[in-house]
Design a protein that fits this description.
Mean pLDDT: 83
Helix content: 25-40%
Shape: globular
Radius of gyration: 27 Å
Distance between the termini: 27 Å
Oligomer: single chain
Largest sheet: 8 strands, mixed
Structural class: alpha/beta
Number of strands: 23
């Protein structure tokens, strides 16, 4: 094997890099491939290939991590994927000899190997199986791009910086490592271990070799930074896939000098890898003041943890493992109460929820989940809010803007959620609305919770648009009534999607639409209901969702666990039928979960039965 920097990879490193991609090829073919490979080392922020560069090679990440971005005609750059160790880039351009469609940069100091187009052609003539292997990689990548899914982006190296002395570091380390252990063997190192290895700083050539050995033998390497800027801390910043900034929620939210100085250790052009962890007292009801902590920090996301809360640390560990469970709840008026039953069935099964989001009424129920309400509390709050008084009964006169004034629904939301900000919820949360002013979908992940939800449920014509930052917003169902893709983009590794099954009516049984008077006689005087004409409210409800139906069908295939609960005879405005809808959702979810293979359920964080656990252990030992 040749090397672009005269530094050779050892056999174990190389085998680890090739096995995920070419593991099904014979050993003699792998040995021949290895002889044609060139080593490439990148510093954090360095570009591997730029968008538009010739596609003449395939690169395999042996250690480290890349990220891919796309630039539009205006020069705006958008990140599209992360590439972890064992994954490859450039195979599509290698086959079609077209320029690269994305730019690849090193997210951290990384080691790659390169197989040139010439070497690939020569090897393919001798070993045709290599061509099929690369074609399979291209097909796999195109499938994931079509489904809107991405790699789990599993973190392999995690740096922890404690921002103050208020957090019990020893307890935090123990609880985090215990949670991370559920996803594989981890090792925790600090500067004392670095000194024992003789590491003097980030430029010491031994540091990458040592960390590469640790990565090869552990699923996760956790590195604790020193309280001040030291060579060890600089090394950790350069080698980390993610950086956790840990602070007590009761501390001062301003960016610390040490934090700012450590950020300067990263190369220019390196995108943020930091996530904020705020540790709360164990009896905290709901966080407050989170926005102040986010000001001045460039973060991927933030997390709220209660001291000693096993579930909270488990949620953080699933984010680090790329396995966070995102719950998506579709809109659908009173029919959406089926989600209450689905949520109850999920909790009884033991599936943890790490993120929540939805549209319209689904956004209200998802917010309750994000506030860490259990099914009983969420159901009780929903019953008080919707069944005691019709939320859509404050009629507007004259109805020039909307049929309803919307004051009653606003009061309901403010009573329901108070003045909480989205950033203050225990779980990451999102809801969507239609930005009427800009003509596009808006995804709400910050700001006043009640106002974002009001925007998501502002049905055109029924409720007045909601004003946010000078823009008019209407019901999210106008663009995406089932926001699976936004949830995936927000960082969910697994999507649990709860939809509402609505039967189609292929025939209505009459040639012309009946008059209002004829409909009134049939429906309210004779009570025969022979004329299957939707009420004006139902027509406006359902019309709002028509535009997002195609997106909804695509979202169904992007979900890892999908529910489609029938709501029975519950109509869109049958608020008092909450219990009936909930029972229907619960029954459907129980049947659906019973059909799922226990090994599949285990991927969502459910502990499998003992017999399944033994089979999983056997399979792992065989590998």
């Amino acid at each position: 094997m040749s090397s672009s920097d005269s530094t050779h990879l050892d056999r174990q490193q190389l085998a680890r890099g090739l096995e995920p991609l070419f593991g099904d090829l014979p050993d003699d073919v792998l040995a021949e491939i290895a002889e044609r490979l060139e080593t490439r080392r990148l510093r954090a922020g360095e570009v591997l290939v730029a968008q538009g560069d010739p596609g003449d090679s395939i690169y395999i990440v042996v250690n480290g991590r890349l990220y891919a971005s796309v630039s539009d005609a205006a020069g705006d750059e958008r990140e599209v994927a992360e590439i972890a160790a064992g994954e490859s880039v450039g195979e599509t351009s290698l086959l079609n000899r077209q320029p690269h469609s994305v730019t690849y940069r090193a997210l951290r100091d990384s080691v790659l190997v390169r197989l040139s187009h010439g070497a690939f052609v020569e090897l393919s003539h001798t070993h045709p199986g290599l061509l099929w292997t690369v074609a399979r990689l291209v097909t796999h990548r195109l499938k994931h791009a079509r489904d809107g899914s991405t790699s789990d982006a599993t973190v392999r190296t995690l740096a922890i910086q404690f921002l103050d002395d208020r957090v019990d570091r020893r307890a935090f380390r123990q609880q985090l490592c215990q949670a991370l252990r559920q996803h594989g063997q981890e090792i925790y190192v600090d500067s004392n271990e670095g000194l024992r290895q003789g590491i003097t700083g980030p430029e010491d050539p031994r540091h990458s070799e040592w960390l590469n050995r640790l990565e090869a033998s552990h699923r996760l390497v956790v590195m604790e930074l020193d309280p001040t800027v030291t060579p060890w801390s600089s090394l950790c910043m350069r080698q980390a896939d993610r950086i956790l900034l840990v602070a007590a929620a009761t501390g001062a939210p301003a960016v610390t000098p040490t934090e700012r100085a450590l950020g300067e250790c990263l190369s220019a052009g390196t995108r943020t890898m930091s996530e904020l962890v705020l540790v709360h007292d164990h009896d905290t009801v709901l966080p407050t003041g989170t926005a102040a902590w986010l000001t001045g920090r460039d973060l991927l996301r933030h997390h709220h943890l209660r001291s000693g809360n096993e579930g909270d640390f488990g949620r953080l560990s699933r984010f680090m493992a790329g396995k966070a469970n995102g719950l998506v709840l579709a809109g659908g008026g009173a029919k959406a109460f089926v989600h209450l039953g689905v949520f109850q069935a999920l909790q009884e099964t033991g599936i943890p929820i790490d993120m929540a989001g939805g549209t319209s009424l689904g956004s209200i129920l998802a917010a309750g989940v994000a506030m860490d309400w259990d099914p009983a509390q969420l159901t009780d709050n929903a019953r008080r809010a919707f069944t005691h008084r019709n939320p859509l009964s404050d009629y507007s006169f004259p109805p020039l803007i909307s049929m309803m004034r919307g004051k009653r629904i606003e009061k309901l939301l403010r009573d329901f959620f108070g003045e909480a900000d989205i950033e203050d919820l225990w779980l990451p949360y999102l809801c969507v609305s239609g930005d009427f002013s800009a003509g596009r979908m808006a995804v709400h992940r910050s700001g006043k919770l009640w106002r974002a939800i009001k925007a998501s449920i502002s049905l055109p014509g029924i409720l007045p648009p909601t004003v946010i930052d000078g823009h008019l917003h209407v019901d999210g169902g106008t663009f995406d009534n089932f926001p699976v893709e936004p949830m995936r983009s927000a960082g969910a590794g697994r999507i649990i999607a709860s939809d509402i099954w609505t039967p189609t009516r292929p025939s209505i049984g009459y040639e012309d639409t009946p008059s209002d008077w004829r409909f009134f006689v049939d429906r309210y005087l004779l009570r025969r209901r022979r004329l299957k004409v939707p009420h004006v409210m139902t027509t406006m409800f359902r019309s709002s969702f028509l535009a997002s139906n195609e997106r909804r069908r695509a979202a169904k295939h992007g979900a890892d666990l999908y529910f489609s609960s029938p709501a029975g005879r519950v109509g869109l405005t049958h608020w008092k039928k909450l219990d009936e809808a909930m029972a229907a959702g619960y029954s459907h979810a129980q049947r659906r979960l019973a059909e799922v293979d226990p090994q599949v359920l285990a991927t969502f964080g459910v502990t499998p039965p003992p017999t399944v656990e033994r089979e999983l252990q056997k399979a792992a030992a065989a590998e």
